[in-house]
Design goal:
215 residues, mainly beta, Protocatechuate 3,4-Dioxygenase, subunit A, two-stranded antiparallel ribbon, binds fe (ii) ion
């Protein structure tokens, strides 16, 4: 359940230096409270088979030097507390379908092909500034039920001692299936916008920040 967002009022103090004929204005901007990232289901395809390679490059798997199929992208962002402070050493656990929309999971019924060179799963840690970054391929859409194709998305589970764990999904801007997805559209427009990653104009990376509630 999302914690109610409370915006702290910025504090503006006006100091008047007496006797010297000028005034001095000092603004103290307190840290801004942030809305907690909306939770979403982890779905049925969280990896169940152990794998040793869970690093930040999902386009190369194990000892293979063959790239995964699909459009290579970078996703990066910050993990923050709802107090606005970055969270260092947060665990960012991600998993996704390959470019054809298939999970490397024994219960995925999608007949789309597996990609033996796609890592599909990574567990990362944020740096001292709360940042994470990984390279992957843009996941494909896949059928979830009759009349319902899931838009491309990446699953995230983010945790750190002292914060409430979040499981959610990241979507991509300009994907027509976003507009009709049953999970995404169960959220308010504002909540949806926090889960839809936008491509950064200069770096080309998709940007996705995650906000956890302080315990
Ligand atoms: Fe999924």
């Amino acid at each position: 359940m999302s914690k109610t967002n409370i915006s702290r009022r910025n504090v503006l103090r006006v100091g008047v230096a007496t006797g010297v004929g000028f005034s001095m204005t000092t603004a103290y901007a307190t840290e801004t409270m942030k809305s907690v990232t909306p939770p979403q289901t982890s779905g049925p395809f969280y990896p169940i088979v152990a794998q040793s390679d869970k690093d930040a490059d999902l386009t190369l798997f194990g000892n293979s030097t063959t790239l995964a199929l699909g459009e290579i992208i970078t996703v990066e962002g910050k993990v923050l507390g709802d107090d606005g402070k970055p969270i260092a050493d947060a665990v960012v656990d991600i998993w996704q379908a390959n470019a054809a929309g298939r999970y490397a999971h024994e219960t995925d019924p999608n007949p789309a092909p597996l990609d033996a060179n796609f890592q599909g799963w990574a567990i990362l840690k944020t740096d001292a500034d709360g940042r994470y970054r990984f390279k992957t391929v843009r996941p494909g859409a896949y059928p979830a039920a009759k009349g319902w194709d899931r838009p491309p998305h990446i699953h995230f589970k983010v945790s750190r001692r002292g914060y409430h764990e979040i499981t959610t999904q990241m979507y991509f801007e300009n994907e027509p299936l976003n507009d009709v997805d049953r999970l995404l559209n169960a959220l308010t427009n504002k909540e949806q916008s926090t889960l839809i990653a936008k491509r950064d104009g200069s770096s080309g990376s998709f940007s996705f920040d995650i906000v956890l509630a302080v315990v």
